[in-house]
Design goal:
Strand content: 5-15%
Helix content: 25-40%
Distance between the termini: 74 Å
Shape: globular
Largest sheet: 5 strands, mixed
Order of helices and strands: EEHEHEHEHHH
């Protein structure tokens, strides 16, 4: 059995990374990392990527495939907001997601010495996770279709037709408050 891959470099020396590298989505002061689902076998590779991008939170929108303790030991918060594969998120998950986005990135602040990132993953990193990121981009002022194009330019194959229809119909939350109430 060879200890070398086709490039002649010993396997132990090659830098390892997840099979499907995570995708960084940056817009204004927002930073999201879209990924596929880690497993216990490759979690350490994902942790390296999460540390590289200063991930403060991991939003898991699929069934658990790994233990959260190694992430929690590094101060990374895990949010289990599971919803159906190929589906749009239910309103309670959208609400919780937007609360997290606002908490991490503030309303309209542009400066932060240490830029935090929210990682979001589903099984393949092509459906549920990109939909949540698209919602955040819409809330930041991007049009629904522009948010899909923006994500797809960076993560090919993201967002299926059913999810696209949901995003096209998504209405930005009202930011206005009644001054008489």
């Amino acid at each position: 059995m060879s200890t070398y891959r086709g490039n002649g470099i010993p396997v132990a020396i090659q830098q390892r990374s997840p099979i499907n590298p995570p995708t960084l989505i940056e817009h204004k002061n927002y930073r999201f990392l879209i990924a596929d689902a880690p497993s216990n076998n490759n979690l350490q590779l994902y942790i390296q990527e999460f540390e590289r991008y200063h991930v403060s939170d991991v939003v898991r929108v699929c069934d658990p495939t790994y233990h959260v303790e190694p992430l929690e030991q590094r101060g990374i918060k895990i949010h289990d907001w599971v919803f159906g594969d190929g589906e749009a998120p239910p309103s309670n998950i959208v609400h919780d997601w937007l609360e997290l986005v606002e908490k991490r990135f503030g309303k309209d602040t542009e400066s932060d010495d240490k830029k935090h990132t929210i990682a979001c993953h589903c099984v393949a990193g092509l459906g549920r996770a990109p939909v949540l990121v698209a919602i955040a981009l819409i809330e930041s002022g991007m049009s629904p279709l522009d948010s899909v194009v923006f994500i797809r330019e960076r993560r090919r194959g993201a967002i299926n037709n059913k999810q696209l229809k949901y995003i096209e119909g998504y209405k930005k939350r009202s930011k206005t408050k009644c001054i008489l109430c």
